[in-house]
Amino acid sequence: MGFTVYDVSLPVHPGMLVWKDNEARQPGVTITREAGGVRESRVSLDCHTGTHVDAPLHMIPGAAPIDRVPIERLIGECRVIDLTGLRDRISRADLVRVDEREPVSAGEVLLFKTRNSANLKPPFDRGFVFLAADAAEFLAEKEVRAVGIDYLGIERDQPRHPAHRRLLEKGIPIIEGLNLARVPAGRYFLFAAPLALVGVEAAPARVVLLRWQE
After folding, report:
1. The pTM is what?
2. Mind listing the pLDDT tens digit for each residue in 15-69?
3. The CATH number of 2-11+46-213 is which of 2.60.40.1180, 3.40.605.10, 3.50.30.50, 1.10.10.10?
4. Catalytic residue selected from 13, 48, 52, 58
5. Helices marked H in 66-155 — which ranges?
6. 58 noted as active-site residue
7. C-alpha–C-alpha distance, residues 28 and 24, integer Å
8. In angstroms, what is the C-alpha Rg of the chain?
């Protein structure tokens, strides 16, 4: 018996995919010491770089920052749902169909695999598949533990960001920037560890899925 490991994190490097191709969001690396066989570097990162986790503070003033999101929400069993047939958005009706096939349980973590996973390099796709407000309402009603999607945002530029707000006001962290291209639909053990940056609204994360093999 063993397990298969899927690293579903985006590599972080200058020139990577960033929100709307905004150059100011590109990560930077500066070598601060390279002498006597010793190398040290300083990294500059936007808190929403690559694979990252949004905390409630991202959209809800005074809400919990990333260091106060319970880590147990981001570690444990999860389900990857294949929605690669969708072209524009994930709607409530789409999730109702998922729920009819295999009910969504309270406390479950859902990761949405869409056509986005095949397009995680520049240039930025302004037409990426996103989570509609009514779908976010469905997930909030189901009281899921966390939600993930395979692009840099869970929604585009919807006025007042209703999907973000509905999930985050319920304390549901959002994992963005997943690469699920090589991950089959099914159940996995999730390890999503954002940096414990005190008082900020999001943090980059290394996200790994494990699947046990008989």
Report:
1. 0.97
2. 999 999 999 999 999 999 999 999 999 999 999 999 999 999 999 999 999 999 9
3. 3.50.30.50
4. 58
5. 92-101, 133-142
6. yes
7. 10
8. 17
